[in-house]
Amino acid sequence: MARVTRSSAKKDDKAPAKAEKTEAAAKAAPKKKKAAAKKESPAKKEAKSESDVIEKAVGKKATVKINEEKPGKGNFVVRISGKEEPVVELLGMKRPFPPLKQLDMDEVCEKVLAALA
């Protein structure tokens, strides 16, 4: 003869309730966010805007290439192909790059356009 006790009956009754709770908790849990697209740095945005100015002024005679040859960490170099000396050369800067922040990009554009002429 099988004997059912109260404690075993309670365990059987709670089992479906626990499963329902875990399913509800899984649905209510926040979903993982998708990785955000990598934002462009302010320096790259400004470099692109300045390159647009140069390309408009010179036309199709010049193309602007950003970091074709990486100058190294903490360096900012503007070169014109065919010329030995760079137009602007800031080497060995420490973060947060104060000389680069103080650099007048309009003046750099003028120097580049003068070197191209």
From TrEMBL:
Domain of life the protein comes from: Eukaryota
Composition bias, Basic and acidic residues: 9-24, 37-54
Record-level GO cellular component terms: Golgi apparatus
Region ranges (Disordered): 1-54
Name of the protein in its database record: Selenoprotein H
